[in-house]
Structure formats: C-alpha cells, structure tokens
Amino acid sequence: MRPFAYERATSAEDALRRHAEGAAYLGGGTNLVDLMRLGVELPSRLVDVTHLPYDQIQLDPNGGLLIGAAVSNSDLAADRTVREGHPVLAQAVLAGASGQIRNVATVGGNLLQRTRCSYFQDAAKPCNKRNPGSGCPAIEGEHHNLAILGHSGACVATHPSDMAVALAALDASVHVRGHAGERVVPIEDFYRLPGDAPERDTTLEPGDLVTAVEVPPLGMPSRYRKVRERASFAFALVSIAVALRVDGGVVRDVRLALGGVAHKPWRARRAEEALRGNPVTEEFFLRAAEAELEAAEPLRDNAYKVTLARNLIVRTLAELGEGT
Fold first, then answer.
1. With contact defined as beta carbons under 8 Å apart, do 310 and 286 qualify?
2. What gap in Å lies between CA 168 and CA 164, rounded to an integer?
3. pTM above 0.85, yes or no
4. Which has the closest alpha carbon to 127: 111, 141, 113?
5. Is the model's pLDDT at 232 over the cut of 80?
C-alpha cells in the first residue's frame, strides 16, 4: 500500500478545506482501505470525518428519520425507531455485511462504496470507471453478476449497496455539504447511470461531504430480500426492497426498488404503476414484474438475472400481500 498521511477533521469546514488541499474523506474505511490495498485508490492524505457531529438518528414527530452520515451500520440496524418504523431499512443493513464490518462501516460510506466488478478492482486491467477511455472488458468477459438494466457501452458495473436499495424504495434524500453550501438531493438524483462517464457513481461535486440521510415516514409493511451465491455474506445477484399498502384486496400504494441489476439502486417505477389500483394476486404481480423487466438488456452470461428478478418481485409481493 502506498504511504499516506492521516488527519482528523475538526469541523465540516475543516474537512472541506483539507479535501480542497488534496485529502480524501475517510469514514469507516471498509471499502476505501481495500481499494488502497489493491492500488485502485491512491490518496496521499486521508481526513477522518467520523468524529464530526453526524452520528445521531433523529425521529421527527411524523415518523420520519434523519440519520447522520457517521452513524455506524450496526447502530442503524439496531435502532428501535428504524426497526419498527422502517423495517426494510434495518433488514437491508443486516443483509449487507458481517457484524464486524457493520460495527465500523458508516451510513455515508455505505452510500458511497464502489462497485465490486473484478475489472474495476484489478488495477492491471482496463476499466472505464477507473481509467476513463480505457474500455470495459466486462462486456465480453466475466459479467455474470453485472448489470441488466440501465447499462451502457462504457460500463456494465452494478452498485453494491444493500442499504441504498432500501433507501431508494423509501424515497430518501441525501444531505450534502459542499463549497457552495448545503443542499438536499433525492436519492434517485444522487446516483447516476453510467452513460459515457461511468467514473462518476453519483452527482456529487468535488469536495462534497455527505452529512445525513433523510427518510420520510413509511406507514406500511415493508421487506428486503437478497439473493446471493452463498449463504454467508456476499453481494447481491438480485435484491429487492418493497413497501406495500393494501386495502380491500387492492394495492393502494407500493414502493419497489431492485439491487444488483444496475449501476445505481433501480427504482421500479413501471412495476409500481402496474400494481397500483389492481388486485393483490400473483397474476398482477407477474404483470408488474414483466412491465419493469421489459427494459432489461442482459449480456451473454447474466440473462438468468431477468428470471431471478421477476420471481423475486412476485414472491416478495405475494408474501407482503398475504400479511395485509
């Protein structure tokens, strides 16, 4: 690993200043340090932002949450207000990593983790995400666990976060502090599809610091399910976050997002539209899944994800529907 200097920010302004001078932000480091070991990230200075005052979970009177970016994944999953009011979020965090990693990893770092595409993680191979313009060997190479939706000729990588999939289904927003001040970004606008600039995972500007995640009230049953290649902790082949409100046997409201299928957490708007106002039956669940997956463009070795996503949508909706 390349030698680096470690610094600790004393305030958000201090962190922004140090970043402008060339330092990289350090949260729990569970992803960044791995990438430094691999030679993918080569910062000469790290500025620790975990001691800034962003380590609280606040519940507003309406049932919404404001989750500080420095909150650990373990504290988030264990928080009673999260488990009771937004169970899909707690389930997603618990599915994401072992207890040891959750103890260290932060909410902000979880949002900003990089793809686990093997070409991105191998500094000896070309990769448009790591070295723009060098090519995407995954398209013709090993891509069985890469994107089927929203990808481009420049990149077929997937976003690895479980938590971000749940936040997408919850209509969360990300609080950001940058050189131009503070702003709140809807999570759908926070992440981006690869297009011809896959090196940009998010719409953050240089130096932007994530300070919190805002989650509106939910008020309906929710669930997170993840399909992976082994029973131990692994990144999703396909995952799903669903919240469903049923009244009189009819879907009144639904939120649905998929993970493991795209460069960003994939909000399944077509499926939601197909579900609202229709009966809670497997027939309509299947129609909704197929409406969403019409846009899928699988590669040579990952067409199985289309079938997997369809079955996961139908099964999870059926289970939630039975409990309403």
1. yes
2. 6
3. yes
4. 141
5. no
